[in-house]
Amino acid sequence: MTAGEEQGWGVGIHLGGLVVSWLAPLVIWLVCRERSQALDQHGKEALNFQITLFIAYVVGGILTIVLVGFLIIFAAWICALIFGIMGAIAAYNRQPYRYPLSIRLIK
Questions:
Q1: Where does the chain cross the membrane (predicted)?
Q2: What are the CB-based long-range contacts (under 8 Å, 24+) for 28-35?
Q3: Within a 13 Å sphere around the CA of 105, how many CA atoms are in the beta-carbon half?
């Protein structure tokens, strides 16, 4: 895999999460993890973050009964947007990125 391809897939891993949640990071990680150590790391980080966001969305959805859930969902969405873009920028610059507030389920 060339450096440019690695860079493009790395950006796709992080930005794909903004579009289709955990599905894009999972598919790209499964396809590319054997080809590149950097993509393996970016994929694990993005997938862990998307799983964390999914948990936050479920909890927020349940708590919408008492209205605080809307704040949780909105905060999770803002975090997804900001941290996803930061991850994509790091991948574009060929730098590792660790999402803050992420539960590390996949190691």
A1: 12-31, 51-68, 74-92
A2: 32/1, 35/1
A3: 12
68: domain range? 3-92
- 8 Å CB contact between 55 and 103: yes
Assigned domain for 59 exists:
yes
In a domain, 98, yes or no: no
Residue 3 has pLDDT above 90, yes or no: no
Predicted model pTM: 0.90
Q: Is the separation of the CB atoms in 22 and 47 below 8 Å?
A: yes
Task: State pLDDT tens for residues 32-81.
Answer: 999 999 999 999 999 999 999 999 999 999 999 998 999 999 999 999 99
Distance of CA 92 to the CA centre of its chain: 15
Per the structure, the count of domains in the chain is 1
Dihedral of CA atoms 20, 104, 82, 15 in degrees, nearest 10, equals: -30
